[in-house]
Amino acid sequence: MIKNYLLIAFRSLQKHISYAAINVVGLSIGLATCLLLITWISHELSYDTFHEKASRIYRASLEYSFGGQTARTAISPTALLPAVQKNFAEVETGVRLYNPSAWTPYVLQKDDKLFQEGRFYFADSTFFDVFTFPLLKGSAKDALTQPNSVVLTRSMAKKYFGSEDVIGKTIMVNNKQEYTVTGLTEDVPSNSLLQYDFIGSFSSLNASKEQIWWSANYETYIVLAPGASITTLFEKTSALVKKELAGELTNPGDYVVYNYIPLTDIYLRSDMSENKAVSDIQYIYIFGAIAMLVLIIACINYINLATARAADRAREVGIRKVVGALRPQLFIQFISESVIVTYMALLMAFLLAKVALPFFNEMTAQPLDSSHFINPVFIITAIAGATVIALVAGAYPAFAITAFKPVSVLKGNFKTSGKGIWLRKSLVVVQFGISIVLTISTMVVIKQLSFIQHKKLGYDKENTVILPLDGQTAKVYEQLKNEILRSGIATHVARAIESPTHINGTYSLNIPGFSNNVGIMVTANAVDPDFIPALGMELITGRNFTENDYIKMRKDTVCSFVLNESTIKEVGLSPEQAIGTFINMHNRKGEIVGVVKDFHFNTLQQKISPLILFTEEQQFHTILIKLKKGDPREALATLKSICNNITPHRPFEYTFLDQEYTAMYRNEERMSQISSTFATLTIIIACLGLFGLVSFSASQKTKEIGIRKVMGASAASVVLLITKDFTRLVILSIVIGIPAAYWIMSQWLNGFAYKTDIGIWPMVLAGISSLLIAFGTASFQAIKAALVNPVDTLRNE
């Protein structure tokens, strides 16, 4: 029986090959989209779930309030972990992490080769007890117990030692200390928040020898004891911290707490400043919705074409019923066709997904592997999903067709009825409505990205090279600076703790005798006198730093400060009042010498907050070089020669400030690329369905078209006859889709403190382009029908 159903289904599909092809192609594109996006979504959701203790690992994240302002960061002090381990049974174990190479990349030397590394972490000896990174060689218990020990990944072992056994080998770090290799791990999985190349022993750091509560620069992870309550641990920790910092928290309302964030929530659900690349759960929802919408459009094609062909299948059903076929048997017959089409589309979808995967990886910046497609669980899930789609998409056409009354059908009454037309029209509106929403959304995302790129930031990010500044480079900095300026390739050379795109240091600010002595929190960056002119920042009042300010700092430890507009507004000073005012910034005392115009030192999602530039040479980690306009390649070649000559202890590696700025919006750029790609696919799939419907409509009107042409109708009027109904449907979808897209993108733009307006042009362009594409698709088939010789059509009829 089943064999008979399948045989008849194949014959029916072969008889109507064009409709079968449209359905298979449309569904395969929709399913391939789902396969790719579900693979990406599952990868994003899998972050850090591979750790054996993942459900019990938490990160302690600092939250503090000072002067009514609250901040949350991912860091904690060295004293936290020892204290909670000693005092609270809820903590099974824990580990502290620190990556100083993220500030100034470490220089590693093997023989005569120098390498610059930015993923050199330090961790307590309990690192491998907390996290599941299996050691290929070495002891998990002892690998990080001794000072100056280091564990390498497989890639780093190959890079530095080739095929040699790495255990016991040494690497020179920062030209001053040899580290002994005590362990080897596999490369870190791509779905790990912690991405390291080297793990050095925490005991190698001076910080390991002291336990400080107020200075927070480290990450602390704890493993909750089985059966313990994280809420109880939070309450106990808060009480302990309050006791330890009682002398610091003197103002009413000031507090410091450590929130315990589940490790598996950090990548997608973090709501604080992170020092690692994270994503956002909203992108899971957005791209999950896109996958579903593309699939819905593909399913609508099948439903539309199947119900449109109902008139052709009606006589077949009538005859079958007359000779004794039961409705359940006919239902199974038509569902079989749906299943065959869907399975063929699924097979093609796997092939399309495999071919498209490299391009998809480039868009998402994730190394997804095609082996995921041959995972038995994934294949079974895909087949199950395809079966559900076949049943859902095929159910209504099967019910509708098998419900025909044989007497009415064989008399030909069904062909003149309007049954099912309302559904097809509704589904066409839904299809193009979805396409319009995605198209407008893509245009708005692109418009916001353009706004970001062209927004006046308060500083000039163009032609600015960033180099790391370490201790050895600091000793020869003046020579390096003079040589760069003498070469004629640059106008300014400056130093700072951080570049203007990554100013993260947070400090307390207190103005003695002002506002009841209650302070606020500010972001701050130590800079030299060349920083402000190098970046083209505008001083509103006062002056820039001078060399005398640094002499005063070295001699009397008295700082000089330049505040931004937001800071003086926050404390209630005018620019003129601010000059000469003495302030205390986290025990750094001195006077305000200038006020700089607000500039963006964070993403445009956040409002510009209080910022202070100050004098403190010991903290410089970054060199900024403003190149003269022209071909940067020649300037970089000259710069490389100068650096290699004066600072031969480290390889010449650099970044551009504008590249750092662009990198801040990788998620938005990714969203733009993915949404534009799949918005295009939705239009293609919708047009495939429209092409099939117009073809069917034209075939149903063959006799009418022939008579009209004999009576003198022009080809244009025939085209209008066929396309006018579909054009109206597309216009209706535009009317519905535009408000929906406007609301959705308004919500998305609300996530930016500084944003573009949606404007009318994205809606106008999306509406016109959708209308032209739909009309062009419909007209192509309509013109073919209009040009057929009426003599042939009437003779055949």
Overview features:
797 residues, alpha+beta, 18% strand
If helices are DSSP runs of H or I spanning 4 or more residues, what is the number of helices?
26
Shape: elongated
Low-confidence stretches: none
The total count of strands amounts to 25
Overall pLDDT confidence: 85
* Secondary structure: helix percent: 40-55%
**CA distance, first residue to last residue:** 36 Å
Largest sheet: 14 strands, mixed
Secondary structure class reads alpha+beta
Strand content: 15-25%
Rg result: 34 Å
Write up this protein:
With 797 residues, the protein is α+β, with helices and mostly antiparallel strands. It is 51% helix and 18% strand. The chain contains 26 helices and 25 strands. The strands form 3 sheets. Strands 1, 2, 3, 4, 5, 6, 7, 8, 9, 10, 11, 12, 13 and 14 form a 14-stranded mixed sheet that branches. Helix 24 packs antiparallel against helix 25. The protein is elongated, with a radius of gyration of 34 Å. The two termini are 36 Å apart. 41% of the residues are buried. The mean pLDDT is 85.
